[in-house]
């Protein structure tokens, strides 16, 4: 009896196996062997692809994530900032153009970029006349003031950047319009609106980059009478070419239709091509890629690139590669080395890490050449005024220099090495793979690394961003990736190296670098209006931070984007983290 | 009977309280045991690089500055009596059962959750019908034709079904029938009342994906159950009485074999109504399961609490229905 039973089991197992393999085979099929490699055409990085003025049609957008908010005053994601301009007009925005041209300001609601006549303390903007909301009323300067005031109240709108409160009201006396006792809710003295078309921002200290703040979606006007506070996210009042159809359902969908009161005569920027724009949120990430390939969806709004499966398909299929762009996202992937945790409080021990790491392997962990370029200093090459340098050369392919690392260890008084703790984000496979690489590379010079992983959602609020926690757990090295809020050296550096950016929780200066020289250079640069002069200061700062060795840069990240051929006016914009510019896209 | 129902209902309420307390504990107490302060908890809900002042404000608006028992009390009070919320511009009354406002997008949890239930209901109900019919019939035939080619084939098929997760079968099904041969193009949820035909058409792949997993399991269970009951003495007696073979199999064999399956079926459907997480994810169906995953991923406590309660309620209800159905299927229970 026993024999037939086992035989039958075997047959069953065999059938099961065959079914599984058959399905696996179909799943992997279609790529066609994958022997030949193709490079992405990168066409949209250097030009606007599929230029067209053809109006009409429905643009179907998808997102594997969701916006942090659709309220222009309450958003921080670059994708949300990019998208918000379809409905809302900030004072300034960035030119929908390729390469460095995208860093140029394009006046949107304002007639021109802001002007200062006192070295950067006072900034004046003039508004265009005849710009109307979706309800037909005209946009007034006081609406912009109100919109900026709203961002002061984190109780009501917690998500957006806090720069306006920080610069316009450094003492924190103004609590936002919702707690404002003035009858018109316009009690903030730092902003003046002498007439309906002029707005003046007044600061105590000069701030050279103010125009970048004016390009935040937070300057898009909000009519006070129509503000619904926390509920404004459902239907922000449009000043742009499109308005929300019905209500936004976070995590599900938002549909945009034409704003009947938008007037092309007031808007030299927007082409307003499609009749309707539909966005589905929280879609399965792999299916998003499939839909792009099939052309049933036109864009992935998240803009951080395709998944691993789709990446392989693109690199092995010429037709797909022709429609792909490998864009520099403007973010730096690095190891933050604590300046406090012993023995890393000694600069030589930090420098040992600089020499020991294998950046070539770290690049592989980032997805290879498609995933990142090897970084040897901080500022990404796409930022205006940046200069690539290498203070710690560690091999032709950056695979590590054991001798130099050991020499630094000797100078640090740790010739026999030591043990330390390294943190990485558990749900970021690139960091987890990178952690093992760092562990191996440092083992070669005698530094024993214990890897600890934490969820990315709590990484800054509970772990690496909490100095007390870092000290208690004797953490020496922390994986980190930083993309600037706005594409300037200030936006890039301030939050990660300024000693005054160290916070009890939620900070991003993970190394806890608090060097008066570094802080001083940041202040000096923010007061310098001349771009060439300020670029020199930032380069000096980059060198200064590299000298202190608290940051081990290893990758300028890139994202592999795919554009279906039926989408028009697509161009990669470095101003929004290297995603496509959403302002003027249309459908053939 | 009424007394029985009341007792079950009271039990359900106690269970819900325990479940929500557990969620609260996981959310607040465990991070605190690890040394996290309420500032650190609040820092999750502010944008990038928050200032201490911003953290303070968020802490206050989310109520994280209160002790955990007080927060739990507020939560329960909201469900029983409703709550008032300040949107900045006006006070909004959230009527009972008020599950609170999302920590992430400031919107009321209950309406958003309500919106998701029909999707999961459609998915689970359709799939349940398919897997029950397919699983049980395959199982019965396999049991009756034990050792035949059909038996081997269907049990092999079952093995594949149990071993292949929906995020695999679903993606393969999409690749084949939505992209390679676009029979089911652009799968998305259409409400039943809007267009029943389109509702069904769009759900065919999700139903099959989900049913494949369960049908396999049910086929094996039915087969085992049938093999056991068909060798019972009373089956021989029934045959000896000269009953038709069909009656013997269906009325005597299957009926007895079905009782344990019904229990599992009730539990499975109940659990699924709390969210068919993988299938919803693969087909991007905005159901309860996807809601749960997103809520947990974003650490949105009010949403996590809401979805946990809904899932618990479904499981409790399903169990109740199973108990009642037992009486119908198994005469021995009817006393």
Automatic annotation (TrEMBL), chain A:
InterPro entries: Peptide/Ni-bd, SBP_5, SBP_5_dom. The keyword Signal applies. Keywords: Signal. GO terms for biological process: peptide transport. The keyword Cytoplasm does not apply. GO terms for cellular component: ATP-binding cassette (ABC) transporter complex; periplasmic space. It holds the Pfam family SBP_bac_5. It comes from the Bacteria. GO terms for molecular function: peptide transmembrane transporter activity. Residues 1-24 form the signal peptide. Residues 104-499 form the Solute-binding protein family domain. PANTHER family: ABC TRANSPORTER SUBSTRATE-BINDING PROTEIN, PERIPLASMIC BINDING COMPONENT OF ABC TRANSPORTER. This is Peptide ABC transporter substrate-binding protein. It comes from Embleya hyalina.
TrEMBL record, chain B:
The keyword 4Fe-4S does not apply. GO terms for molecular function: dipeptide transmembrane transporter activity. It is found in: Cell membrane. Residues 117-326 form the ABC transmembrane type-1 domain. GO terms for cellular component: plasma membrane. It is a multi-pass membrane protein. InterPro entries: BPD_transp_1_N, MetI-like, MetI-like_sf. PANTHER family: DIPEPTIDE TRANSPORT SYSTEM PERMEASE PROTEIN DPPB-RELATED. This is ABC transporter permease. It comes from Embleya hyalina.
